[in-house]
Amino acid sequence: MSYSMRRKNLVSELNLMVAGYSGLGKTSFIRTLFGTLKLRSGPGSLKNKASAAQMASGTSTPTTEPTSPSATTSGGLGTKANGTKDSVGYATGELERTLNSFEALFEIEESAEKINLTLVDTPGFLGSDEVVDAHCDEIIAYLEYQFDLTLAEERKVRRNPKATDNQIHACLYFIDHSSTRPGLSAADIRILQRLGTRVNLIPVLSRADTLTRAQTKKLKQAILKDAALHQIQFFQFLSPKLAKKLLQQQGGTEDHEQKKKRNSRPGPGDDEEAEENGEGEEEEEEDDEDEDEDEWDPETLEEKAHLQSLAPFTVIAKEEDVEIKDKQGKPVQGREFPWGVLNCFDSDHCDLSSLRSALLSSHRQELKEITFGYFYEKYRTEKLLARTKSQHLQFQQQQLQSAGSTASLNNNNKTALLKNGGTLTPKESMLSVGSGSIVGPWEE
Ligand SMILES: Nc1nc2c(ncn2[C@@H]2O[C@H](COP(=O)(O)OP(=O)(O)OP(=O)(O)O)[C@@H](O)[C@H]2O)c(=O)[nH]1
């Protein structure tokens, strides 16, 4: 099945994950987002999608079947959260610390489109570097497990046309801004560098009601600077190539700074766009022969540029257990202060509204395409190469062992013959060596 055909199967699903240090508001974010969802068929139910997909894959043999990370890690990802809550219960019940990851599944309607939305809440990072790194291993194992499910499905002779897309299309990474030094902590850098190899990363500054405008600006700049310094690739709403296109459309010219930015490390989206837009390797050609230039209308590019300028996105979660009303007496998801009411979805207060529409609507398909076309393909290639390498090593070992046993067999024969007073003819010696040798694939 071609990539374009396969990706049609991915249309109705969107799987998002939240990750970051403990207490930064990840669960609160999910609950605030939940408050804006239009549920399709009543409450969504708790489903461990990973194991559901595993069961749906039917009769494949254990050797091709991926192993759920939950089977190997205690309280790890892919497990049901503390027992009985369903997705709506998770999004509306008492706010608790997340101890086990939770996959909340909602069947929603967004801009007249039906979406199966899964929000994966992960336990917050906490503790020593070793504990944090082990926790990061679990998240990576979870992400890779979703790829393994796709890989197992793709290998089948008869693929299940109803197989669900379990891949995580974006990870919203919550950055702690309580430290005195603005920017990314050493642990954030380590985690982001690793997660960035497996998933679209979207940086988030939560609890933004505790930040002034000047602090927010300084923080955003510091985070982006640290990310660039440490080769952390955040999802690009507007890739350098599209930024250039936007400038061309606006009739502007690049100044030195913009040129420097544009020449920064290319990201996953770049390749996709380059491919889709028919852009060649030569920049000269790329400028002259951009056939699909009209595909990106100025409004879309401007929206992309706006989103790119917002990242890292500030978010504010609603206040729990309090009914908040705005000045007009209309109920809002917000927080009330002595000096006024803060509305989580007011763009003057934070970036949550823009982030929501990018995830659920404007960039949903792009996130999925990059997940499938870049992250999954990269994982698949790595895995197949590793397997070929290990098979090759195994084969070499077998060959050595076999050569060793043949040599010892020959020595034994020789000893026996000599003991019996016999002699070893060249023909016999050749035969005995020949019968013990391995026929390699190169000899077939
Ligand atoms: N002021 C303020 N407080 C917030 C905001 N979001 C969450 N909180 C509070 O922060 C605390 C932690 O929120 P959680 O949503 O449980 O944080 P978490 O990241 O899921 O924490 P773990 O489960 O430990 O990973 C709670 O007391 C929330 O009420 C926010 O936007 N502003």
TrEMBL record:
Keywords: GTP-binding, Nucleotide-binding. Residues 44-84, 246-300, 403-422 are annotated as: Disordered. InterPro entries: G_SEPTIN_dom, P-loop_NTPase, Septin. Residues 57-74, 403-420 have a biased composition (Low complexity). One of its GO terms (cellular component) is septin cytoskeleton. Residues 269-300 have a biased composition (Acidic residues). Residues 10-386 form the Septin-type G domain. Gene3D superfamilies: P-loop containing nucleotide triphosphate hydrolases (3.40.50.300). The keyword GTP-binding applies. It comes from the Eukaryota. PROSITE patterns: G_SEPTIN (PS51719). GO terms for molecular function: GTP binding. Belongs to the TRAFAC class TrmE-Era-EngA-EngB-Septin-like GTPase superfamily. Septin GTPase family. This is Septin-type G domain-containing protein. It comes from Entomortierella parvispora.
